[in-house]
Amino acid sequence: MNSRSGSTTSTATGKDRRPVGELWALVAVFGYSVSNLLGRAGVVRGDPLAGPLLRDVPSLVMGLLLLSRGGGHRQLNPRSEAFQGSKLLTFALSGLLSVFGTFAFFYALNVGGVNIVIPVLQTQIIWGALIAWWLLGERLVARKGIGVAVTLVGLVILAYGQSQGVPASDRWAFGILLALVPALGWGASGVLWRFGQQRGVSRASGITVHYGTSALLGLLYVALSGNIGVYAALRPQDFAAFLLSGVFGGMIAVYAMFSAMKLLPAANVFVLNGFTPIIVALGGWLLLGEYVNPLMWAGILVGSAGVVLFQLTGSKRVVAAASGSKA
What we know:
The protein is an all-alpha fold. The chain has 13 helices and no strands. It has helices at residues 2-45, 51-70, 89-112, 114-121, 124-135, 144-163, 172-198, 203-224, 230-233, 236-263, 266-273, 276-287, 294-312. α1 (2-45) packs antiparallel against α10 (236-263) and α4 (114-121) runs parallel beside α7 (172-198). The N and C termini lie far apart (48 Å). The relative contact order is 0.22.
């Protein structure tokens, strides 16, 4: 009797948690979508060089707050027995790869627009899985090739549709190549992030080192290239767009995604996350005047379906990381 009662209670609890988990997953989709739209809004008139630092600062602040709450700062203190030492270098390297991707991301938004960049950026999940298979020996079933093929078909349709319409600039095709840089960089960064956490580095320490490295390197590059004045030259609305892009993508969306993963099967979260490029395209069309035609819509839908299919096919583990959730 007690066993049946416990099983019934567990099932009921699972059903009660599902709507909350779905709500968190939708908040994550909303956060990533708004973040990408704000990034595009910032580069329409603002200098893309200013974007990376301002986008990373909110995530760095979140890491520092998490450190102060849980006593995780001991992992970063060389005088503490909990100091992680060389293990932290993994997150410094992930920050290095990430900052390359973030610079390319803002330049890609500048020349390609969200309807070209975001669907390409979604392939970071695929690149991350391939890199994890090569670097960490993680299992990768052959059936996932179906998802890759569907994604490629979607991107080809998208590119052809854009060639028949009004692009964000005459260099929109270069935007596709630029978008591959963050897709690869953030995908690899996510693998390093997972590897570092498997070795015992806490999430708070990882976030702090990752975004601290990324923010510092971004600032150094801008300063050493003689462009430090880009921050002062930004219009207030562009400054706010870059900063809020980091708040929505690096704080709100990441927190919501982790919360959703605790309450829902990964498959459900993946499917909902696949709506991000569609919502971004709709928002870009309605709010930013981004051009989109039926062929481009078809390409975005097919490409998103391919990424979701790749994640769901033969996968029992979640392939995700904080840096890899920037899309």
